[in-house]
Every structure is written in structure tokens, then in C-alpha cells.
Amino acid sequence: MEDEEIIDLFFRRSEQAIGELEAKYGGLCHSLSYNILGNWEDAQECVNDAYLGTWNAIPPEHPDPLAAFVCRIVRNLSLKRYNFNTAVKRNTTFDIAISEVENCIPAADDTESRWNAKELAREIESFLDTQSRENRVIFMRRYWFADTYAQIGELVGISEKNVSVRLVRLRKQLRAFLSEKGVLV
Amino acid sequence: MNARMFMEAMEEIGTAYVEEAICYKRKRRGSLSGSRLWRTAAAACLAVLLLFGAVIAVSPQVRAAVLGWVKDLSMGYGRYYFAGEEVPQPERLTYRITAVPDGYVELERSETDFAAMAIYCEKETGRYLNFQCTFGEGGTVNVSGDCVVTPVTVRGLPGTSIVPRIRSTITAWYGPKRICSS
């Protein structure tokens, strides 16, 4: 079913919309949530909450594209759950992805007054615009979807080792880019 | 908190980047593009040539077959080139006429380092037998018309007989280093 038809079902308040959403993007949402939380039960809960959030948001929202809209809700809810769980253990793919970028961004004390998340996001977008499509996808799949190297390799069609090497280069380039922009002091 | 700040920033990343990552379909690597097809074909040709060269280098039979006779036809003449294996032979190979038909007597004879010639004549009919032998080293013999080429042995030495298909009085044969005709 096309996205537009699913959105139409939401607008008509048809419960079939949730079923169609699950059928089309369920795998993606569950994978995203699991990569962050490392727990299928928590991931299932977050995805269900995300569907509820989507149900409440549409209407009046008319998202385009629908997948990114739902994924953003799933990610936000998963991160909230992650923050709640963090005190207990840190061993998910997301933990590893976070640890990789420790050195890319300066300490909050240095920059918080001048840079907020939105401004930093615009700089990261500028950086991504300088990259090839494949590199952008690798970067986003790692640091937005928290995919494993194996998953990214499968998606892009390269080896895990190649993914690892490319991410190392991307982080170095990002650090240099942010340094030029004055984010890093 | 550096990483935390980064992750918060990632939450604000534009939808277009998220959508691109969701919809990304990798390029098909299985199909052969034009340039890749040519590269593959060139590599295959190179592999075949190398294999062929290796076989020629290793096998004397194959080498002899490939480097054997090469026939070049031009202007009604057939030119045969030979570049096969060199067979050891005596320093000097001498051909002698040991018998001629009854009634023939020797009319003329000459012999040099490069050629020998003898003419016999039958006085009653006026027929001639003309024997010539040229000691050629170039590996080339000229014979007019289409010829039958067969391997022969002359005094225990390998050679090649070249006989024109058209009825002719000339027969030529080629030994390892000499060309003879009669």
C-alpha cells in the first residue's frame, strides 16, 4: 500500500492504518528500536507507543515521507527508554555507536553557550552534503538508526571491514569540518 | 557528554537525510556494465593467450604443429615456410643418382656448393630427365600451383614432399636444411 493511502486511512480514523503501517514499516521500526535498546520486549513496547503517537499525530499532521516521520517517533521513544535503562547496563549497538563519536564533539562546557543541538544538526547536515550518497547513508544508518556494521554492509553491499574503515574516515572528516566551523575549539 | 550532544543533534537532522537512508537501494553489482564487460573479455583473452603460450613452451608436439608449415599463396605460386624444430643432421648431405631408365645417357652434369644438376637423354625418343638439387638455407621453396604436402624420409632423415596436383615433371622436397627438386 502506498504511503498516501495509509495516511488516508489515518485521516478516516480507520484502525486498518496501524496494521498497514506495521506491515510496511514494522521491520524497520523494530530494528531501529532494538538497535538502540538491545531488548526485543522494550523495542516492541516503544514501537507500539510510536504507532499510538502516529495515530494521535495524524491528523492534523500530513507527513511526507511517512517512513521518516514514524522512524523519528520510534527513535525518540527508544532514546527515552534508553536513557531510563542506561543506569542499569550499557551494551547495546547504540552504546557502541555513541562511544565512537566521543571525540568528534567538544565537551558541553566549552560550547553549550554557543551551540545547541539544532545548530549542530545544521552543521552536520552541511557536512553530510559534502559526502557521497553512499557515505551519507552509512553515516545515517550508523548514527541515526544505530545499525550494526553487518547490517550496513548488507544494505550498501560492502564488507563489515569496509564499513568500519569508512566510518573512521567519516568521523575524522566530521571532526575536521566542525573544527573549521568553530564548533571545536 | 560530547556523544550525548551529538546524538541530540542527530535527532534534529533533516527528514531528507533520514528518508535517504531508509530508501537507499544498493547498486546491482551482479550485472556487467559495458566497460566491465570489455575488461572481463580482455582478461579472458589474455588468460587464453598465456595458457596457449605455456602449452607451446611445454609440449614439443604442439610447438611443432604450430610452428610447422605455413603456406602463402600469391600470384599463382605457393610459398611454403618452415620454422619447425631443427633436426640434427650430418654436416654434408650428398644426393646421388643411382639408376636411370634404360636407354638414357648422361648429357650434362654440374655440381657446386649450393646446387647440383644432371641431365639424361634418350636419343631414340629425345626425352630428357632433368635432376636438380638446390641446397637452400632460407626455409622457403617456390612451387607453382596447388600442391600435396606429405612428410617423407630421405635416407633416414625427415623431410616434406611437395608435389603439384597438376601433372608435372617437377617434384620438390624439403629436408631439415635443404630444398631439393627434380
How would you describe this structure to a colleague?
The complex is a heterodimer of chains A (185) and B (182). Chain A is mostly helical and 185 residues long. Chain A has 10 helices and no strands. In chain A, helix 1 crosses helix 2. The mean pLDDT of chain A is 82. Chain B is 28% helix and 35% strand. In chain B, a hairpin with a 7-residue loop joins strand 8 (157-164) and strand 9. The longest helix of chain B is centred in the N-terminal third of the chain and has 25 residues, at 34-58. Chain B starts with a helix and ends with a strand. Chain B is of the alpha+beta class and 182 residues long. Chain B is rod-shaped. Chain B contains 4 helices and 10 strands. The chains are: A mainly alpha (185), B alpha+beta (182). The interface between A and B is medium-sized, with 39 and 26 residues.
